[in-house]
């Protein structure tokens, strides 16, 4: 500890103790973003409806519903709402005053020093005056109006209003938890990553769709083939080409040579007219080429990792001679939309020379993409397989279990892992894969792939990934991927308590889980096990909204309560702004607290307590008094 004077120590102790008495800051949980940048961005901008609630609490009785909605939209999308729209001086004055009132309200939970740090330097002084030099009887309104007038006269009103809007967004939610699956299916995971990298306080629990991107970047050829296959399946060339600068020309040339159009490989989930017929055929050919490469690479991987026990997932050697049928577990099934011309019956898992060159070229490009590198760096730095935060447990997938409810073991190189140690082991594997990314297909890379689709993965949670069957076999019974018993057990309170215990958490905590779309339409409740288990994947992913019937759950945990917000399907940013749609998400209350929770009761509060203790020890103080 640096040399401190007694008075300094006392001031610091008073400061820390007063922070402990502030209300606990609001946490916001979101999951399964799946590349849907605009919907995600909207939820972040309106803070799952909290801004609307705050505005109502300040302006009810003073502003009409319509005017409140307009003010909210100005806070969510300040540039779009204000840019190029001429406003008279008195209109600006009203707006600036309204925005300052909201800012005051939402920043009142924080210390001055925290607010000061968040203020943009160019306006710091003015803003501090506006935020703190006020009293309830409005004696200072003339003074404020003079400040607003100066801002307006200097032509800074627009910029000032935009700054305030973002400050409000920043203050309403203090900490964001992202429970995984940022990538795949939707078009713009790259834009989501850019935005997440700017969030001041965040943690990330990685999802199965995130770790395959890390695996691909780290040199797992199988993961690379998987991410390319999924991107092509959903027709997101622009993510690869424009977003990450990956040139697909060699893959395309190769695919053109060997593959025909194939309906099973046309891109899915596309808006009408988004891609021309020719473009779709071009994608279908590349999609087939990369799928076959994937199946071959996976076969090789399964052979070199006997611990994975996945021989039954190798299917290319089970094709009939004429390639019209396949034998799976002793039963023959007809094949449809087959494209096995590059599968050599003598060596079905061997890549052709062309395939090898294509995939190595793609790996090279992935690893050289600066933007992808930045995104992966951030994910690996911030991402965990589970997090413990304020006594709660957060993870994306599951704890694989046996039918009797005990944790399932995974054995690798003679060591057994289960539950918490299994998650820790996978995290180590992921970090090692990333650190050794100059080497491809290391055992760590293989473990990342296993985490994507293995039976004892904490992110997959099913017995088998039936990608092959879903492309080529009509019989739907073969598409079924059976969920681990965990998903039944998690409805039970005692089971959830046993998980909390395994992570050394006490009974007051709860588990937040993503990954499985909640079928709200069929009456599934996201609040399970008497509030011990909260499932927040409501399916932001457009492709899955048919199943869920809503557009995702988010969770809000503030000083008064914990509740889920069920979001309505989101069309697009342009449409939302045009109609200023403001259907508040439905709230599902999880827990109303019996008292207002203070910072002292949170993780931050506990670490402040340690600092206070250390300071008190420093001067031999106890209970705020100095020893004689
Ligand atoms: O519907 P798609 O995009 O083909 O994906 C299906 C695949 O995705 C998975 O459901 C995994 O993705 P989720 O994490 O979103 O569930 C696999 O089990 C399944 O084989
Ligand atoms: Mn998932």
Would you write up a description of this structure?
- This protein is α/β, with parallel strands linked by helices and 628 residues long.
- Among the domains are: 47-173; 189-479, no CATH class.
- The strands form 5 sheets. It has a 7-stranded mixed β-sheet with strand order 6-3-2-1-14-15-16. Strands 7-8-11-13-12 form a 5-stranded mixed β-sheet. It has a two-stranded antiparallel ribbon with strand order 4-5.
- The two termini are 22 Å apart.
- The chain binds 1,6-di-O-phosphono-beta-D-fructofuranose and manganese (II) ion.
- The site of 1,6-di-O-phosphono-beta-D-fructofuranose has 9 residues, from helix 12.
Distance between the ends: 22 Å
Count of helices? 26
- Protein structure class: alpha/beta
Instruction: Summarize the main sheet.
Output: 7 strands, mixed
Catalytic activity: beta-D-fructose 1,6-bisphosphate + H2O = beta-D-fructose 6-phosphate + phosphate
Family: Belongs to the FBPase class 3 family.
GO molecular function: fructose 1,6-bisphosphate 1-phosphatase activity
InterPro entries: FBPtase_class3, Metallo-depent_PP-like
């Amino acid at each position: 500890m640096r040399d401190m004077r007694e008075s300094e120590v006392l001031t610091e102790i008073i400061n820390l103790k007063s922070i402990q008495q502030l209300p606990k800051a609001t946490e916001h949980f979101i999951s399964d973003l799946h590349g849907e940048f605009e919907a995600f961005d909207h939820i972040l901008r309106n803070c799952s409806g909290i801004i609307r609630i705050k505005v109502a609490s300040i302006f009810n009785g003073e502003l009409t519903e319509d005017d409140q909605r307009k003010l909210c939209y100005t806070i969510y999308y300040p540039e779009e709402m204000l840019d190029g729209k001429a406003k008279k001086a008195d209109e600006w004055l009203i707006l600036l005053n309204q925005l300052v009132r909201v800012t005051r309200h939402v920043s009142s939970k924080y210390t001055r020093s925290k607010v000061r740090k968040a203020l943009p330097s160019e306006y710091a002084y003015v803003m501090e005056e506006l935020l703190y030099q006020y009293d309830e009887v409005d004696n200072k309104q003339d003074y404020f109006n003079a400040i607003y007038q100066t801002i307006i006269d200097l032509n800074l009103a627009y910029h000032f209003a935009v700054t305030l809007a973002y400050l409000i967004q920043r203050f309403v939610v203090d900490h964001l938890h992202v429970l995984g699956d940022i990538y795949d299916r939707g078009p713009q995971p790259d834009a989501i990553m850019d935005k997440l990298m700017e969030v001041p306080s965040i943690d990330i629990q990685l999802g199965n769709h995130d770790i395959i991107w890390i695996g691909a970047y780290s040199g797992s050829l199988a993961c690379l083939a998987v991410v390319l296959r999924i991107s092509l399946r959903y027709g997101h060339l622009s993510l690869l080409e424009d977003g990450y600068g990956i040139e697909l020309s060699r893959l395309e040339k190769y695919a053109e040579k060997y593959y025909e159009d194939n309906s099973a490989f046309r891109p899915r989930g596309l808006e009408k007219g988004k891609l021309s017929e020719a473009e779709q055929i071009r994608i279908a050919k590349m999609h087939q080429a990369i799928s076959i490469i994937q199946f071959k690479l996976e076969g090789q991987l399964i052979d070199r990792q006997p611990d994975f026990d996945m021989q039954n997932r190798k299917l290319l050697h089970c094709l009939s001679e004429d390639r019209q049928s396949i034998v799976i577990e002793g039963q023959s099934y007809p094949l449809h939309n087959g494209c096995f011309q590059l599968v050599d019956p003598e060596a079905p898992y061997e890549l052709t020379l062309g395939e090898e060159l294509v995939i190595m070229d793609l790996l090279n490009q992935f690893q050289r993409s600066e933007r992808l590198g930045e995104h992966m760096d951030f994910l690996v730095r911030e991402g965990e397989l589970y997090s413990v935060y304020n006594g709660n447990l957060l993870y994306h997938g599951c704890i694989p279990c046996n039918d009797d409810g005990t944790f399932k073991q995974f054995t690798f190189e003679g060591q057994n892992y289960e539950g918490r140690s299994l998650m820790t082991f996978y995290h180590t594997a992921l970090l090692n894969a990333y650190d050794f990314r100059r080497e491809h297909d290391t055992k760590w890379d293989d473990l990342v792939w296993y985490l994507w689709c293995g039976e004892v993965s904490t992110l997959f949670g099913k017995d088998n990934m039936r990608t092959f069957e879903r492309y080529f076999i009509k019989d739907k019974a073969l598409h079924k991927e059976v969920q681990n018993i965990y998903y039944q057990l998690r409805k039970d309170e005692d089971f959830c308590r046993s998980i909390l215990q395994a992570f050394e958490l006490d009974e007051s905590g709860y588990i937040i889980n993503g990954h499985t779309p909640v079928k709200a339409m069929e009456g599934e409740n996201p609040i399970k096990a008497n509030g011990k288990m909260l499932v927040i994947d409501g399916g932001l992913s457009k492709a899955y909204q048919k199943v869920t019937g809503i557009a995702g759950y988010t969770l809000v945990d503030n000083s008064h309560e914990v509740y889920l917000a069920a979001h309505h399907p989101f069309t697009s940013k342009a449409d939302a702004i045009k109609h200023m749609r403001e259907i508040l998400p439905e709230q599902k209350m999880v827990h109303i607290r019996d008292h207002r929770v203070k910072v002292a009761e949170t993780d931050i509060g506990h670490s402040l307590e340690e600092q206070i203790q250390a300071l008190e020890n420093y001067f031999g103080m106890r209970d705020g008094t100095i020893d004689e």
